Amino acid sequence: MALALTGLVLAGILAERRELWLDEYHTWWLSTMSLPSLWTFVTGDVHPPLYFALMNGWQRLASDSPLALRLPSLLAYTASVFVFAAALRPAGGTAAVRSAAVALFALSPALVYYGSEARMYALTVLLATASLACIVRLHDERGATRQSDATATALAVAAALLVYTHYTGLFFVCGVGLAWLLRCLRRRAEWRPFVRFAVLAGVGTVLWLPVILEQRARKTAIDRLHLAAVAATGPASTPATRANGTAAANTPGGTAAAATPGMIPWARSLAMSTASIMGVFPAPGVVLAGLLAAPFLVLVVGVLMALRSRDELAFTLLVVFAVSAAGTLIVPISRRYLLVAAPALFLLLWRGLVALHRLRPALVLAGPAAAVVSLAGCLRMTTTPEAHPLAHIASVIRADTTRLPVHIISNYAAVPLRYHLRGDRPPTMHGFPVNVEAWWASQAFKGWATVPVTRDSTEAWLGAHAAPDLWLVQFEADFQDPWQYMADGLDRRYVRTEVAADVLRGTSWHLYRLTTRHGARP
Asked: What's the CA gap between 103 and 370, in Å, rounded?
């Protein structure tokens, strides 16, 4: 209880201090849609529907403040701590070992961070933890047919819901199935519960499979449109293009690990993401990182000891973690995509603690030492100064009594500004290359994707939105004009004055006041 409360307090501090980031504004936008529009959107998007359907219902009961939007994730994080603790009780080990394992889970900086975010990741962790709790129970119920059938059914339901929450759940479910199949082949588990799980989880997943394949094909088609636009309209690269590409990779909460070809970079990024989940990375220096990692290395030795002693539960957890982590080979490496494997990782460390305790009880101190490292990572997050660039931009625009139109370079970045400027008489806003509403109306599939930008579309947009004076909001990481057609066109027509540069420095956001240049052609 105390550990769950500590983690909840830390996550609550983050939820209150941090400004929403782009994907969370996406959650807000979907939560305000009607149910038919929401369904049309999620089937055309690259995400499954469960979290957004839940948030749509939540929005009808709660406000749309940042804390209200993040509250379901806070509750899911807290519930996952209790489910994790409950999974350890029937499986043996001393109270000290169980407490250390729960502390590692509850104080994981990544779990705390994403437990304070209005996205589906905390719910993903909860469902993955519930699935693994069923697996732990199945290990204890071997030979009890009725109980095993009921637990296998619960596992299948949790696994299917996981897939409908985030597609990384597919790798997790494959890991569970593979580990269980291997145990059945080795005669370490019974076939009947496994077949029940495989059939129920398989049917639940297959029902959504046509949508997954359609979403994947659509995403591939959109990528081809973007590549064709790049090839047809301008030079391949400029310094601005490279800078914008770097900014796009550094999403909030990530580990700066972008999609990089090759096994060595992938393994390095995976190691960094895993270390970030446990609180070791980022560290200011190699020596300090080594010291922080020391207790975790002791736990890894315990895991190896457990595997050597033929700990069947440790073997199952290792397979689940390995398959879940290997799934990131086909998606950009980011710790938020690795969160589905985090419960298996911490349960593995628990098995390592059990093995260390059997060898020498004093070695269990590695668990509390590792938890202190994780807690330090959480405290570092909660004490880091937080910028609120969008709130500041909105306050400047709202204070403008002339109510100039607002031009936003990106249709994606238009959503967060609409959130902050909602209410009575919001200013007229134009997204580039199209408004969000126009983009929504023009897309047959209605999913979340940016519109390919060409020189012709840029110049047409400039011609259609001429105004004597205006505000310009630019988001660097989503700036889709690498050949500066937009900037050149604006500079021919307007004098650009940057506003609040000191406040917005280092945030990727820029605010400009544009005034008609003397003698400029309309």
From this structure: 9
